[in-house]
Amino acid sequence: MCRWKKKKSIIKWVKAHKKQLAIAGISTLVIVGIILGIKNNEPIQALWVSLKKSIVKVPAKMPECNAVTSTVIELPMASDISLPEATNAVRSYTVSTMPFDVNRHIRNLPEGWHPSPEKLAEAAELGIKLLLNQTLVDSYVKGGMAA
Q1: What is the mean pLDDT of residues 49-63?
Q2: How many other CB atoms sit within 10 Å of the CB of residue 122?
Q3: How many angstroms separate the Cα of 99 from the Cα of each of 20, 95, 138?
Q4: Is the pLDDT of residue 57 over 70?
Q5: How many whole angstroms separate alpha carbon 123 and alpha carbon 105?
Q6: I need a surface site. Which of 18, 63, 100, 118 has the fewest CB within 10 A?
């Protein structure tokens, strides 16, 4: 018999018996799994116990969260706060309808950038010593609605 005829007959036999081959393969895997489970019983039990300990138990009934609640925190006006308390105040960084002042400050410039001669002179007049990549920023107003 030719070689290719043998291959065809084997393929034909596999196609005819594929259900029995699948059952045999699954049975073999189950038997091997049972044998490995019996041989490694103690490590599997230890793993199971550690997994049980690591699982957080959820209460049977969770509290209902149907109601929508909103909390409004009223902060005192800046004029009502003494200076030490004002430094600890928290500012919300959302879009504000009220403009606020930003004081003059030093800004670090990107590497390779240098302050203008005007800003160097202004800082020297104020007694501020700027480092190489720093500049002086004038005060400005921030926030508020656009016109």
Answers
A1: 73
A2: 17
A3: 81, 10, 16
A4: no
A5: 10
A6: 63
HEC assignment per residue over the chain: CCHHHHHHHHHHHHHHCHHHHHHHHHHHHHHHHHHHHHHCHHHHHHHHHHHHHHCCCCCCCCCCCCCCCCCCCCCCCHHHCCHHHHHCCCCCCCCCCCCEEECCEEEECCCCCCCCHHHHHHHHHCCCCCCCCEEEECCEEECCCCC
Between residues 95 and 24, the one the model is more confident about = 24
Nearest to 79, CA basis, from 64, 71, 70, 89: 89
Q: Quick one: which of 114, 88, 91, 116 has its CA closest to 102?
A: 91
Q: Which token pair is 119?
A: 């800003």
In whole angstroms, give the CA distance from residue 44 to residue 42: 5
